Amino acid sequence: MAKYDNNFTDQLRERLSIVDVVSRRVPLVKKGQNYWGCCPFHNEKTPSFSVSEEKGFFHCFGCGKHGDIISFTMESEHVDFKTAIAELADMAGLKLPEYKPKTQQQIEAEETYITITAAAAKLYAEKLFTPDGAHALEYIRGRGFTDEMIKKYGIGYAPKNNLIANKFVNTKQDKLIATGLVRHGDYGLYDFFRDKLMFPIFNAHGQIVAFSGRSLDGSEPKYINTTDTEMFHKRQTLFGFNFARENIHRANRAIIVEGQIDAIQMQCNGFGETVAPLGTALTEDHIAILCKANRNIIFCFDGDGAGQKAAARACGIILPFLRDNSDVRFAFVTGGKDPDEILRKGGKKDMEKIINNAMPLVDFLWQIANKNYLITTPSGRTQAEKFLKQSTDKIQDNLLKYEYERDYKNRKYKEWRNYNNSKDILNIEVPEIDNVIKNTLVYIVNKYPEIAERYGDFISKFNLNLDSDVKLDFELDFDSAEKYIISLKLQKYIESLEKQKRDLTVRGLSGENNITDEIRRIDDEISRMHKKFEMLV
Questions:
Q1: Phi and psi of 320, rounded to 5°?
Q2: Which of 54, 114, 400, 430 would staple 461 via disulfide (CB 3.0–4.6 Å)?
Q3: What domains sit in the chain, N to C, each tagged with a CATH number?
């Protein structure tokens, strides 16, 4: 019978939640920290079958059966080990390898690997407090790190020379190269990390399996990580998870930030449940690992364009992992800052405000649809609807998917239908406009007759000379042209509302009563139009 080594079976256990595996056959209800249901291995009316998502085990207090996802699949489906592994691999979306049992040589190689990385971490840590590492120590202390924090996270310094290659000169080259710490060059081995602030990367068991080095001279990339090895896979490793695991359980949530320094500062300032991907690439494996620990996740990214894109990508990745007990939110640090800076300048209280105001996933997905598509046009709304449909189709929990679809259906009716009635709402008297606007309108009318027809009542108020041959210094495609018309229409409508408000205010100052409600109504309408205008910008 084919056997599979611990690497692959551990990968299955990390990728798959035992709650997801068991709930395919047993209806489960969460009570306290565990899930409960009627045991599938003996007849019972009162649930005594307990499932711990955190530990990855099930136990029946009635018949005594217990185990993990593999033993549950074997017992519940009456299949052998190989078949169970194949079924779980398919469920996890992993290719089933033809692994053989680990040889003694492989076991020794892994032990050597861990021994080397642990020794290297010690060397880096010592080097940080030498004259060679003085600039690195000054930098990390300047970022608010105490010596206690530096020691806890094993932060060190890789000098410009070949520290590792020289110290491990008596170690077999192939074993040293296998760790990713050195490479083979024309003149022998040389260190991969040079003049870097070093952050050890721990696996879930607390063993150092890799390193992340930060540049100190402003060069890019800011961070470089150990390349993938037999013991380290960046796509499957979350920085700080070994420290955060217990805190995630206690806080009943995980927080994901963008970088190592942010993660450490968060953990040391009251947010111990914080982790970070290595680099910018958040993966399905990262989400799977977190969902096994807890399905409540807050993504905390920078509020700039890159942070918004990262959040949108994270949103797409996590959708298949959503369950009815998931609480996924998105928090953004604005003003060109990051969590590290917020904590250093404003402390925990300011960071808590950002975390507590995090936007629920259902709202963030709606916001993406409204920002990325021109919902003031039929074609834009169609594109937005397709985006929402493609997104909700990723949700595997059918009841939850239905609730998302129903929520968006209500929002579309309440918020988008107003654009269908905009012709009546925006029927206004239009003042004079400058030649630039006139020429742009003439250009649009001549190039896109369908737009002219759609907004004819509005455009006709400007008394344009449509026979003139206008050429602009820039090109407008169809959507941009329609967006220009709608923006102008909204602008003129807002101006007319503001004029109405001024007139009412003057009447109020003259002693006229009963105008407060009318001014309030106009204020509400102005606010609503400004929101529509912002969607176009």
A1: -65, -15
A2: 430
A3: 6-92 (3.90.580.10), 106-232 (3.90.980.10), 237-370 (3.40.1360.10), 424-536 (no CATH)
